[in-house]
Specification:
Elements: E1 4-14, E2 20-30, E3 34-38, H1 45-52, E4 59-64, E5 67-68, H2 74-80, E6 81-84, H3 97-107, H4 112-125, H5 141-153, E7 159-163, H6 171-182, E8 187-191, H7 195-201, E9 204-209, E10 212-218, H8 219-225, H9 227-230
Parallel strand pairs: 3-8, 3-9, 6-7, 7-8
Antiparallel strand pairs: 1-2, 1-4, 4-5, 9-10
Helix pairs in contact: 3-4, 3-5, 4-5, 6-7
The structure holds adenosine-5'-triphosphate (ATP) and magnesium ion (MG).
Length: 239
């Protein structure tokens, strides 16, 4: 049997005083798997992924590579799991792309030359090595997303978690990102509303609704079952 990389059992969470955002979520990610997380706005997807590296802690159990997500394991877990946030671009803050991507490895104790080597390798992986010397805030949105992914790859994670990575990308950019991610060896969790992107990248999907997973299975089947959730066309013409 495959080793679970992530095992979540009956996870429950509510933001201070508010409604429950997670109502008993169970989930498992195996080695080498890529899973799409679908669900309407506010259904708990981001809240769920923030539990995977301990940015939020609810009731129930969350284990990453066999380690319970709790304070004493957090630094080990954050080496194993790399989170690329939806607004990851706003986290680029160093004067050059290279320094930005090297920030994670330096923060983890690598020497500066080692960190810069790793950063350059990660930039090559995402096809951004030519932009190494540029200012991050001069990059296009798609380039910034790739730089943010390089920043996570440079830290050498076993699992990649991407929260809505295709936002701001044009269709060719979305396809290129799907190909780039598909070629990476890491297991992946991809939060997305983008069906072609999910179909290209993730054989399996789960569907969140009101803080629980209401369906899971092959991505095409989950999409078919919840088709109306993905349809953006208005029921009647607005003209
Ligand atoms: N910081 C917060 N404080 C209070 N409530 C929050 C906070 N963040 C999210 N929520 C609430 O928790 C619920 C789940 O939100 P979450 O962001 O996890 O949804 P989501 O599935 O990621 O949605 P989207 O597709 O819009 O990104 C929602 O009801 C939301 O309003
Ligand atoms: Mg979200």
């Amino acid at each position: 049997m495959k080793r679970p990389l992530i095992e979540v059992r009956d996870l429950r969470f509510r933001y201070g005083g508010g409604e429950a955002a997670l109502n008993g979520v169970s989930f498992r990610l195996d080695e080498g798997e890529s899973v799409a997380l679908f669900g309407p706005n506010g259904s708990g997807k981001t809240t769920f992924v923030l539990h995977l590296n301990g940015l939020l802690q609810g009731e129930g159990s969350v284990e990453v590579c066999g380690l319970p997500v709790e304070r004493r394991n957090l630094s080990a877990i954050r080496r194993k799991i790399g989170l690329v946030f939806q607004d990851s671009e706003s986290q680029l803050f160093m004067p050059t792309v290279l320094e930005d991507v090297a920030f994670g490895p330096i923060n983890r104790g690598l020497s500066r030359p080692e960190a810069l080597d790793r950063a350059m390798a990660a930039l090559r992986t995402v096809g951004m090595d030519a932009a190494a010397g540029r200012a991050p805030y001069h990059l296009s949105a798609g380039e910034q997303k790739k730089a943010a992914i390089a920043g996570i790859l440079a830290t050498g994670p076993e699992i990649l978690v991407l929260d809505e990575p295709t936002t701001f990308l044009d269709p060719p950019g979305q396809r290129a990102l799907a190909e780039l991610l598909a070629a990476l060896p890491q297991a992946k969790i991809v939060v997305t509303h983008n069906i072609p992107f999910a179909l290209a990248l993730c054989p399996r999907a789960v569907f969140f609704q009101e803080g629980v997973i209401v369906a899971e299975g092959p991505t095409a089947e989950v999409v078919a079952r919840f088709r109306w959730n993905f349809d953006s066309a208005p029921a009647k013409s607005l003209r």
